[in-house]
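Below is one record:
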Amino acid sequence: MKTNFKFWLLLAFAAVAFQGCQEDDPIIREEVEVLPPETVTTVQGFYLLNEGNMNMNKASLDYYDYETGSYKRNVYGQANPDATLGLGDVGNDIGIYGSKLYSVINNSNKIEVMDVVTAKRLKVIDVKNCRYITFANGKAYASAYDGEVQLGENSPNGFVAEIDTTSLSITKTVKVGRQPEKMAVVGNKLYVANSGGYSPPNYERTVSVIDLKTFTKIKDIDVAINLHRLEADEDGDLYVSSRGDYYDIPSKLFVIDTKTDRIKKTFDIACSNLTIVGDKAYIIGSEFNYSTFDYIINYNLINVKTETLLTESFLPKAVSDEIKTPYGLAVDPVSLNVFITDAGDYVSPGKLYCIDKNGNTKFTVTTGDIPAHFAFKTKKTIINP
């Protein structure tokens, strides 16, 4: 979920619709739509986490099976009929590690852990205002704001929780900056992007570095204000996005060399979403400005080996013209199919587009509200009961 502008937009919608929501059945029933099947490689399919509107309790989980072509909406409710409140409020991240599927449910202050095959609940881990999750060496790492969902100068520093993926219990926590967002592991270090998004214009501007052996913060790297996305390439370089201040300071993308923990490159482009596959970084640049109340949208590619911005877009014009609110993004690591979502008006079901590596549209399908976060299910199994 994007903070600041979208936070207040969703809160306004929620205030209008809250009473009606309370009267509805919170369990969303499973629906199945048959799409063209994909060639099954090491990738068998993917889960798509729909955020749902804030305070509407409409987070939901979809699954696309490559072999059968079945696109199943609302698989969590079907697998967990006793979960009377459904998946929860605001699905903010998702990840697969070993035999388990982890869904970070931000406004419900929890991480739902499920069986990766059946989507049945295994455990709920309580984490206040949790944001993102990543994995390494038998551990899950979750970033959390550790405060109420509200703007204000008194918001506390956030933290990262270390979770044992066998016992599914929190074993350690470490404080980082205010409103920490995305994370990445490189070697024995965990990098955390701090935003400070609850207290504009007093944004944070650092990436915190955590030593995973001692689970202590060893330094902060000064980058730019209001950091958000953070991804590592195959060489261990980090791509970190700054959202700017939505007025005069524009969004930018920075490259950090993790051997020196210094900035080595700056791209003057917006980056609202980012994924790196092979030697390419795929970037949705959706930049909002309060002065003009306009969005500027681009679909950029960066060659991460040469660290150059390419001239071509990763999305064909016919699709980019159709998408109203570009949001979720993933690229199949084998086929290089691009999956991109449209959140539309944020209060209605969204759309998922599949584009092959040659720019041809393979299919579109209706999703839940605010389709956002992907986790590919593969044949590779990590030893993790």
